[in-house]
Every structure is written in structure tokens, then in C-alpha cells.
Specification:
The chain is mainly alpha-helical. 70% of the residues lie in helices and 3% in strands.
């Protein structure tokens, strides 16, 4: 059996365990328990401070609660941690759109679409939001 892929943080943690913790946070979100989800995502962020992923999860949590300004803060923190992350850039754009900052949101989404490899989830996400904006849905 191959050795597990480790995520370097405060202590080395198997990647599968980090993923499981994040999935638990999303499960709490689905169960309408945002406080518990926030605690898990904050815990993972502390455990692996070099990763932008828990910050994206926190942003998504607050986005789901309609707290777009707080979501933007976490998505911008994720982007600072990983400036090459097209997904973080797309989430910044999404938050801006829902804050009624359409021009800024569109620019962020166009940047994300340009950063993302063609056919990637991040590109699809950014392009879907751009299409929705162009169609007047958002």
C-alpha cells in the first residue's frame, strides 16, 4: 500500500483527513449548522495555514448565508495566499457580483477565466457566472 499524501501544516496531516474534515464542514452547512461549519473550517485553516482551501470554504459558508461582504473577505484572503488560484479569483468575482459591484465582479471573473486552464472547474464556474451576468440573470 502506498504512503498517504501528506499536507504540510502545523503538523503533517494526510490529505484524505484534511478532505474529510472539510467535507464535515460542508455537511454541517447542509444541516443548517453554520456555527459548527465555521468552527471546522477555522480549525482546518489553523492546521494548514499555507492552504487557501479552508478560506474558500469559509467564504462559501458566508456566501450561503447571504453575508457577501464577509464572503468576499475570506475569498480575498484565499487569493492573497494563492494568487495563481483561478478558483479563488472566481469566488472573489462572484461575491462582488452579489454585492451589486457588477463591473468589479465582471473584471474579476474575466481574470479568473483567463487564469484557469480550459475545461477546468474554475473556468466553467467563472464562465457560467459571466454568462449569467450577460443574460441579466444576476
Amino acid at each position: 500500500m502506498a504512503d498517504p499524501v501528506m499536507v504540510e501544516g502545523l503538523i503533517p496531516v494526510p490529505q484524505a483527513e484534511v478532505a474529510l474534515l472539510l467535507e464535515c464542514g460542508y455537511l454541517y452547512m447542509e444541516m443548517q449548522k453554520p456555527r459548527e461549519a465555521e468552527e471546522i473550517f477555522n480549525g482546518v485553516a489553523a492546521l494548514v495555514p499555507s492552504s487557501e482551501v479552508p478560506l474558500l470554504c469559509l467564504g462559501n459558508l458566508f456566501f450561503s448565508l447571504g453575508r457577501f461582504d464577509r464572503a468576499l473577505k475570506f475569498h480575498q484572503e484565499a487569493l492573497k495566499k494563492s494568487p495563481e488560484s483561478a478558483l479563488a479569483q472566481a469566488h472573489v468575482g462572484e461575491s462582488l457580483l452579489f454585492m451589486k459591484k457588477r463591473a468589479e465582479g465582471k473584471a474579476a471573473l474575466e481574470k479568473a477565466a483567463g487564469m484557469a486552464p480550459e475545461g477546468s472547474d474554475a473556468a466553467a464556474f467563472a464562465n457560467s457566472l459571466l454568462d449569467a451576468l450577460a443574460a441579466g440573470v444576476i
